[in-house]
Backbone:
């Protein structure tokens, strides 16, 4: 009995983590295809996506490539999302402006935020500053998730809005939510 | 410094993009999807006769193969062709590795190689004098990659790809002619008609 309780509380803990919420919310919204360029913070999410047969998940060489893949899949009737870090988002202005937005394709992006709240790499801090100006200049929907209690609402509603309005969305995962990456070497 | 590859030593005929695209389109009988890369590649696809299963890129240079991969993964029973220029492919060589790893058997890729950025003023690509794109594809893990010797060989390779157990890449040497038509630049209609053509959407 005690063991069963432990197991169920462990399961609940995983589901209530930020990455558990992403996985469950993607699944509930039928988002199956998840190409990514990895990031340290995203590791548990990537691992759990690979472990779940509901998802087709794989690495790509560039974030732009992943956006192309989910765009093609969406036109073919399968929903997708792309995982990346801040520096990867910085490579996407062209594909967002010439594919996702003008063709009205709901590309769902999860961006692990580097460059703020304890960044140790100056280049990451600089590239982070380009992200929101690019999103704003394209008038793209974007949210920065900082709190676990709001997170499911933000993810679920943002996916639904992207699909119904046929517009891309960027969900920025703040270190306040994920813990971020800290200097350890 | 590498010495430029002498094109005269290649046993491949220099063909024409519009002619090859027309030959491909003429062979399509099963509502196959065709993704045309930026510029001349999709202009010639447009000129070869619009089909509801054609998708025309108006930007995002280099993404014809990734977009086609997405369609191929979403609809594994449909044959998907991707037409891409050599300069465009150079922008996304990594996508060849992704495709080799996922190995969709319903994807046929065609690389239109004239060694130049024809549309911007015919400047040579960085690969033109030094690199073999089919060899790069083979080394990326796509063993069904070959140069088409001539038009008949191109048609044979297209037919062969239909029964292949993995993705196919066909390299064709083409001349320096510009595209034959001009795609109507209406991205929302292009995307919506493509989705209708793929059976994902119903007309309003």
Residues:
């Amino acid at each position: 009995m005690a063991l069963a309780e432990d197991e169920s509380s462990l399961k609940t803990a995983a589901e209530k983590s930020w990455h558990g919420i992403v996985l469950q919310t993607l699944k509930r919204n039928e988002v199956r295809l998840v190409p990514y360029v990895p990031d340290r913070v995203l590791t548990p999410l990537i691992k759990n996506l690979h472990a779940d047969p509901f998802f087709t998940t794989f690495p790509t060489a560039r974030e732009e490539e992943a956006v192309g893949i989910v765009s093609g899949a969406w036109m073919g009737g399968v929903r997708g999302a792309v995982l990346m870090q801040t520096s990867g988002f910085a490579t996407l202005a062209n594909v967002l402006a010439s594919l996702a937005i003008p063709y009205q394709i709901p590309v769902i992006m999860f961006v692990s935020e580097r460059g703020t709240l304890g960044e140790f790499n100056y280049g990451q801090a600089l590239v982070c500053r380009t992200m929101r100006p690019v999103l704003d200049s394209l008038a793209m929907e974007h949210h920065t998730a900082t709190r676990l209690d709001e997170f499911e609402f933000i993810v679920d509603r943002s996916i639904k809005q992207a699909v119904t309005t046929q517009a891309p969305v960027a969900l920025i995962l703040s270190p306040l939510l994920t813990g971020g990456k800290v200097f350890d070497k | 410094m590498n010495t430029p590859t002498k094109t005269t030593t290649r046993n491949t005929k220099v063909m024409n993009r519009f002619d090859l695209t027309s030959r491909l389109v003429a062979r399509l009988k099963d509502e196959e999807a065709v993704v045309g890369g930026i510029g001349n590649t999709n202009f010639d696809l447009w000129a070869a006769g619009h089909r509801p299963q054609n998708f025309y890129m108006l930007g995002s240079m280099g993404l014809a193969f990734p977009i086609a991969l997405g369609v191929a993964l979403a609809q594994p029973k449909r044959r998907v062709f991707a037409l891409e220029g050599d300069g465009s492919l150079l922008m996304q060589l990594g996508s060849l590795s992704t495709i080799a790893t996922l190995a969709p058997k319903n994807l046929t890729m065609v690389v239109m190689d004239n060694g130049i950025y024809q549309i911007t003023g015919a400047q040579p690509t960085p690969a033109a004098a030094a690199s073999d794109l089919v060899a790069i594809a083979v080394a990326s893990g796509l063993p069904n990659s070959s140069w088409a010797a001539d038009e008949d060989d191109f048609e044979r390779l297209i037919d062969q790809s239909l029964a292949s157990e993995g993705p196919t890449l066909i390299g064709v040497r083409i001349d320096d002619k510009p595209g034959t038509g001009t795609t109507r630049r209406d991205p929302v209609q292009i995307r919506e008609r493509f989705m209708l053509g793929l059976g994902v959407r119903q007309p309003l």
Notes: Chain A has a mean pLDDT of 94. The interface with chain B takes residues 33, 35, 56, 58-62, 64-78, 80, 94-95, 97-99, 102-105 of chain A (CB under 8 Å).
